[in-house]
Amino acid sequence: MIFDRPTSSELIKAVMDFLDTKIKDELPPHLAFKLRITNNVLGMVQREIDQGEQLSEEVIKVMSDVIKSDDLTTKELSNLIKNGDLDLSDEGLKNLLILLSKNKIAVDNPNYSTYKKLIK
For residues 115 and 45, which has the higher predicted lDDT (pLDDT)? Predict the structure, then answer.
């Protein structure tokens, strides 16, 4: 990588910390709520930068065992399910869908209670 520190993830974290510690208390409640939404979105971007490649590789590895195709995408997976080429009687598909959901939630909302149950 040609880029030195701070990394993209570190820059996002710095912005989030600044907004939380310096700006949040100066805002009226309706804007403070919007700031929380903004920080949640920034957190998602940061987690995708930090973990996205690894989480995607995990899913693609399992997906390659379920989908016998060169097109290892969620779009192809959904088409195969929609067309009846794959169904939930296939344990591999069940495991893939659980992993896919778990890895997406790891980025979107790792504090989600169901996610916490899944990772235990």
Answer: 45
